[in-house]
Design a protein that fits this description.
The complex is a heterodimer of chains A (about 425) and B (about 250). A 6-stranded mixed barrel of chain A has the order 3-4-9-6-8-7. Helices cover about 55% and strands about 20% of the residues of chain A. Chain A has 2 domains: about 190 residues, no CATH class; about 190 residues, no CATH class. The longest helix of chain A has about 40 residues. Chain A is of the alpha+beta class and about 425 residues long. Chain B is of the alpha/beta class. Chain B has one domain: Rossmann fold, CATH 3.40.50.300. In chain B, strand 9 and strand 10 form a beta hairpin. The longest helix of chain B has 18 residues. Classes of the chains: A alpha+beta (about 425), B alpha/beta (about 250). The interface between A and B is medium-sized, with 23 and 29 residues. The structure holds adenosine-5'-triphosphate (ATP) and magnesium ion (MG).
Chain lengths: ~425, ~250
């Protein structure tokens, strides 16, 4: 076997320029794919982290039908005391759950005493909210970031409204809301901070204390629109989601319809579609890599066989078995693949390290200066390496087979 | 496949061959079919070749020398008649068996030398021991050096084929053909690409090798000077054997 490798390697060296050209093509493909995977992967995980950790949480539980009409922020589809108690009971029983946060969502009129506009509000119990979406306080761009997100009587207003209504931290504002039965109530709040907007549902909501919301809406007992859940480990999401979904589906009302609905961040954030597009692009780039490797190696190996017909005739005549002749050429393709892949992998890993060291930043939507921190898993590298080398071998099979099948006399006569 | 490079097995075969001929052709025919046209390249020849002989096939161009040598070398199956080489009927072999048979019993020397350009002189001679047979490293080295010394190329082992002359290449090719202890070496026009002087030296080298290793040499040639060196000369014409001439002057029709 060592001799086969030696001869194959020498033949690659013999046509050095061609070998370098072909393997650089493979190198280029490998670098493109590995860099693409690592950069988009870091972008993806960062965006997903932003979305889940600063707004949505990993999972959300609503009363059945709430999500369908979430645009209106309906108050008549809130969970009642009994239902909330059930959710609490179920969630407390799940080990993988880190924390959960009860929210009332509502729409209100926002007034700075001279102008009025609409505002969507997320009303929270601050201690629960900071545990469930720990990055929320990172989004406070003006005003101090406190451990307890906000006090009763305070409001965090979205950036857009702060700019549009010329409201600053420390100003007083009035919120006026319709409650469930249609009557109107108002309450004064102190602006304690301005929230940076992010893409996705709830990304441009103001935040007030849950108790203030109950006062504003004249709610006496317990009423909750949304329960956001954070898991200890995001990797558990599919498992926890399916078990919770099953469990909540078993709660039905008198008509036998389910009471709850459970969604993951994937159902809730449009970014999931972007993430899927990225995955699809990765897939197509991999296909392109496979095509590049296949075509370039096959091309080179067909040429190699054609140029060496006489040599093939010679070694076949002196008794080299067809299998060994085949092995000589397949090994040549294999080595070409290994060469291109090895160089490509090294260049990719160095490039990733350089990008990390350079601390490149990018903007996404209204978020700026996100640091690009590409990483790549050993699994991804190994997969790409194996695919490329496998394709290199596969591409050499046909030419190698042709060489092995050659009739020695015809081959020897070839000029 | 490993062949015993020394030992009882070898002796056994050799003693058997004392009894029987190395090559026996009986009403041997070869017809090439090119579309509608069939070419009778060999038309019923009978001959035997004994072990350790030094044989030449001569005749005009197109008389069938290459065709006959290819058949003896198990590169091309006969169309009719029988051809036995080293006691085996070669018509019955498939491709793989034929390749294996060649690797075990037959050495080849080619008109164009046909050394492998990416291998050194030493590696070229080593090739059959490594890639065809399966000799252990120590014996291999010894054997290759022996052969290189025997053909007078002992000090050129590290050179590549592109760095030596045509005559030297053919010496290396002779060493490669002999290295596996082949029963016979087939050489189709081995001197056609060499000048007269060098051609003579190569033929003399082959004869010396025959004396040293008892290997049968069968070659074809156009060159009258070269053919005079043969001990047995078969003359072919138009696919038929015209005469067999022994170097003691005896002639058989
Ligand atoms: N593969 C083939 N297909 C068809 N005809 C062939 C083939 N090989 C040889 N022939 C024909 O068989 C006859 C004998 O050819 P061969 O090559 O054996 O002659 P030769 O004596 O070796 O000639 P030369 O001295 O020119 O080498 C010729 O008529 C040739 O055209
Ligand atoms: Mg010929």
């Amino acid at each position: 076997m060592l001799n086969v490798i030696k001869i194959a390697a020498r033949n690659l060296r013999r046509y050095l320029r061609r070998t370098i050209l072909t393997s650089s093509l493979i190198t280029l493909g490998v670098v493109a794919v590995l860099l693409f995977i690592s950069v988009t992967g870091s972008f993806k995980s960062m965006m997903v982290g932003q979305i889940t950790d600063s707004m949505i949480g990993h999972l959300q539980i609503h009363r059945k039908g709430y999500m369908a009409s979430i645009d209106n922020l309906p108050l008549n589809r809130n969970l009642n005391q009994q239902q909330v108690a059930k959710v609490k009971e179920v969630l407390s029983g799940v080990d993988a759950v880190e924390s959960f946060s009860m929210r009332i969502k509502l729409g209100a009129m926002f007034s700075n005493f001279t102008e009025t506009t609409n505002i969507r509000l997320n009303t929270v119990i601050p201690e629960q909210e900071v545990k469930t979406v720990p990055l929320l306080s990172e989004r406070i761009v003006e005003g101090q970031k406190k451990d307890v997100l906000l006090q009763k009587g305070e409001i965090l207003i979205p950036e857009l409204i702060a700019k549009g209504m010329k409201v600053k931290v420390g100003d007083s504002v009035v919120l006026v809301a319709n409650n469930k039965d249609g009557s109107v109530n108002g309450k004064t709040f102190l602006v304690s901070g301005v929230l940076e907007g992010i893409s996705g549902p709830g990304g441009r909501d103001g935040v007030i204390h849950l108790d203030d919301a109950k006062e504003l809406l004249r709610i006496d007992g317990v009423e909750i629109s949304e329960i956001a859940v954070r898991l200890k480990n995001m990797g558990d999401l599919p498992r926890v989601f399916s078990s919770l979904k099953g469990e909540f589906a078993s709660f039905t009302n008198k008509e036998g319809n389910p009471v709850f609905e459970v969604h993951t961040w994937k159902d809730l954030s449009p970014f999931y579609n972007i993430a899927q597009m990225i995955d699809l692009m990765t897939f197509f780039i991999k296909i392109m890599l496979v095509a590049i490797v296949l075509v370039s190696i096959m091309n080179v190996m067909i040429m190699a066989v054609y140029e060496r017909i006489n040599e093939i005739g010679t070694i076949a005549a002196i008794g080299t078995l067809p299998g060994k002749i085949m092995a000589l050429f397949v090994t040549e393709g294999f080595l070409l693949g290994v060469l291109g892949t090895a160089v490509g992998t090294v260049i990719s890993l160095i490039s990733i390290a350089v990008i990390n060291a350079a601390g490149l930043t990018f903007n996404f939507g209204r978020q700026s200066n996100l640091v690009l921190a590409p990483t790549i898993g050993a699994g991804d590298v190994i997969t790409i390496v194996l695919i490329v080398i496998g394709i290199a071998v596969a591409a050499s099979l046909q030419p190698a087979y042709k060489a092995a099948r050659m009739d020695p006399i015809t081959a020897l006569r070839h000029v | 496949m490993t062949i015993a490079y020394s030992g009882d097995f070898e002796k056994e075969i050799l003693t058997k061959e004392k009894v029987m001929s190395l090559v026996t052709a009986d009403h041997l025919e070869k017809t090439y079919q090119i579309g509608e046209i069939s070419v009778n390249a060999i038309r019923g020849v009978n001959f035997t070749i004994e072990p350790a002989s030094f044989v030449s096939f001569v005749g005009p161009s197109g008389s069938g020398k290459s065709t006959l040598l290819n058949m003896i070398g198990c590169l091309d199956p006969p169309t009719a008649g029988s051809l036995k080489v080293v006691g085996q009927d070669i018509a019955r072999m498939d491709r793989k068996q034929a390749a294996h048979f060649r690797g075990e019993h037959i050495g080849f020397v080619f008109q164009d030398f046909n050394l492998i350009p990416v291998l050194t002189v030493f590696e070229n001679v080593e090739y059959p021991l490594l890639m065809v047979q399966n000799w252990p490293a120590k014996e291999r080295k010894k054997r290759v050096n022996n052969l290189l010394d025997a053909v007078g190329m002992g000090d050129q082992g590290d050179k590549y084929p592109s760095q030596i002359s045509g005559g030297q290449k053919q010496r290396v090719a002779v060493a490669r053909a002999l290295v596996t202890n082949a029963k016979m070496v087939l050489a189709d026009e081995p001197t056609a690409n060499l000048d007269g002087e060098t051609a003579n030296r190569i033929i003399n080298l082959m004869k010396k090798m025959r004396d040293e290793f008892d290997t049968t040499f069968i070659f074809s040639t156009h060159d009258p000077k070269v053919m005079q060196s043969a001990e047995i000369i078969f003359t072919l014409e138009d696919g038929k054997l015209l005469q067999r001439q022994n170097d003691n002057g005896g002639t058989n029709a």
